[in-house]
Amino acid sequence: MKRVIRPVVNGAVREVLVDPRQTLMEVLRDGLLLTGTKEGCSNGNCGACTVHLNGGPVVSCLVLAMEADGAEVVTVEGLAQGPRLTPLQQAFIEHGAFECGFCTSGMVMIASALLARNPHPTEAEVRRAIAGNLCRCTGYDKIVRATLAVGER
Questions:
Q1: Which CATH number is associated with domain 3-76?
Q2: In the chain, which segments carry CATH 1.10.150.120?
C-alpha cells in the first residue's frame, strides 16, 4: 500500500507517493529526479548516495523513504545557493578532487557534514570522516586537501 510522504528536500516541501519498501535514494533519484545522489552499491558500503537527513550524513540507500516523512533532506543539488558553488565544491574543483566523478557528490556531502560540525578539521579527522566513502580514482589525497583548504580559509 503506497503512502504519501512530505519531506523538506533542499528547502522545499515535496509531496511524494512511495511504496513502503522504497529507499530514500530511490525516491530522490527516480521520484524527484535529483540524480546527484548516486546509486553505487545499494547496501551502504560505498557512500555514493550520502545525503544529509535532519542535519547529519546518511547513506540514503539504507534509509526507507517513509523515514524521511517530515524530515529535512539536503542533497548535493541543495548545497549551493543558486549558481554559486559552496567553498567546498569550489575547493574540489581547484584541487582536482575528482576524476570519474561518481563518488564526488557523496564525498562532498560527507565532507560538508564534517565541516559543519568542525570548521577546522585536522587531516586525520578528514580521513576518518571520509573513510566510509569509496573512491576508485584519486587515492583520496586530493579530496583530503580540498576539505582541509576550506577549513584553512
A1: 3.10.20.30
A2: 87-152
| DSSP string computed for 112-136 | HHHHHH-SS--HHHHHHHHTTS--S
Per-residue pLDDT of the chain (153 residues; tens, 9 = 90+): 999 999 999 999 999 999 999 999 999 999 999 999 999 999 999 999 999 999 999 999 999 999 999 999 999 999 998 889 999 999 999 999 988 888 999 999 999 999 999 999 999 999 999 999 999 887 799 999 999 999 888
Q: Three cell numbers at 4?
A: 504519501
Q: Looking at the chain, which residues constitute the CATH 3.10.20.30 domain(s)?
A: 3-76
Give this prediction's pTM: 0.94
87-152: CATH, from 3.40.50.300, 1.10.150.120, 3.90.700.10, 3.40.630.30: 1.10.150.120
Spatial distance between the Cα atoms of 83 and 80, rounded to a whole number of angstroms: 7
Q: List CB contacts of 118: < 8 A, sequence separation 6 or more.
A: 125, 151
